[in-house]
Amino acid sequence: MNSALTSLPLAGIPPEDEALRPQVRAWLAEALRELPADVRSRSWLGFDLDFSRALAQQGWIGLTLPTEYGGAGRSGFARFVLSEELLAAGAPVAAHWIADRQTSQVILRFGSEAQRRFFLPRIAQAQIVFCIGMSEPDAGSDLASVRTRATRTDRGWVLNGRKIWTSNAHRADYMCALVRTSGSSEDRHQGFSQLIFDMRLPGISVRPLRDIAGDTHFNEVLFENVELPPDALVGEEGAGWQQVTAELAFERSGPERIYSSIVLADTWLAQMRAAGAEGPAVHLTAGRIAGRLAVLRGMSLAMAAKLDRGERPDLEAAFVKDLGTEFEQSVPEWIRDALDATPHVARSAELSRSLAYVTQICPTFSLRGGTRQIMRGIIARGLGLR
């Protein structure tokens, strides 16, 4: 058997990290008590800077960052517990999620000491909002086709190009972008670098894009002769591909890849229990959700253990992301079928709104962080099938 299929040994959450769960759950119950299920179903797409800053005051952003940079110095398992509780509650975490999950790790691993000391404490306090510049109109999930270019000058860099599907770019203070600094698209994985820059610089235009659910968290971002300082570069010039693939392991493997439909599932199950609904449709649906969730959670925990050890499980992350988003997309269909099979149970307006929203938005689950086709291409190459 290929080693990629056997390299996710089961991992458990240490007791000291599991002990974080009750206090987070109690705090969230109070903080979110007025939010209905259809609002909480937006989960990590929900943007509320005040909420993120309140969370930061609890010391719960930057949990894995060293204390010298404003973090808590805790393990990846502590952040896993926190993430599970935030997603299960449907907390509006988009204001800090990207920076906490991946940009902080890029800066910590590859950034200069000056970048660490400037950005990391501000991320841990939710004082700044980050977006990530990866996808482009003519590249999609094929990051090796990125054309946005930064040209070195005697004063730093000049940036030209476009990014698209950039979440919360219209609200972000900074972007961490993958750009080409040498060569051409034919060079594929060579010649890329990562740059961090202020989104208020002259020459940057942001155009919000409305999605099918009416939200405008996606954006197109245009760069026209944007002048960047020399210290915009993160890590080494030309090392951007290695850096961004390490970053994507954080994006693709976390519990947000399995819990995007969890508020809907909990809302449905609570209504079935309240109505005393029994029968094969309810049991089958609840069993499907619980069984698959248990396996995916185990895989995600194994990924957390690898990342906590400083490993780069890029292939395993693609497995988790592909299987996780397939599960997330199936949940609304299973629940809709279960509701059709139990017409005698009255459906609350809150459940109906939640189901409608998740049904609308769930096709995007397999797009964000890399499309299903890209994930399966990575998996096929890792297994030696292409």
Describe this structure in words.
With 386 residues, the chain is α+β, with helices and mostly antiparallel strands. The chain folds into three domains: 3-129, Orthogonal Bundle (Butyryl-Coa Dehydrogenase, subunit A, domain 1); 132-239, Butyryl-CoA Dehydrogenase, subunit A, domain 2, CATH 2.40.110.10; 243-382, Up-down Bundle (Butyryl-CoA Dehydrogenase, subunit A, domain 3), CATH 1.20.140.10. The protein is 46% helix and 13% strand. It has 13 helices and eight strands. The strands form two sheets. The protein has a four-stranded mixed sheet, covered by helices on one side. A four-stranded antiparallel sheet has the order 2-3-7-6, with no helix packed on it. The radius of gyration is 21 Å and the shape is globular.
Overall shape: it is globular
The radius of gyration over CA amounts to 21 Å
State the share of residues found in helices, binned by percent: 40-55%
**Widest sheet: strand order?**
1-4-5-8
CATH class of the largest domain: Mainly Alpha
Spans where pLDDT lies below 50 across 5 or more residues: 1-6
Mean pLDDT: 90
What is the first-to-last residue Cα distance? Answer: 17 Å
Descriptive keywords:
Butyryl-Coa Dehydrogenase, subunit A, domain 1, globular, alpha+beta, disordered N terminus, 13 helices, Butyryl-CoA Dehydrogenase, subunit A, domain 2, 13% strand, four-stranded mixed beta sheet, Butyryl-CoA Dehydrogenase, subunit A, domain 3, 386 residues
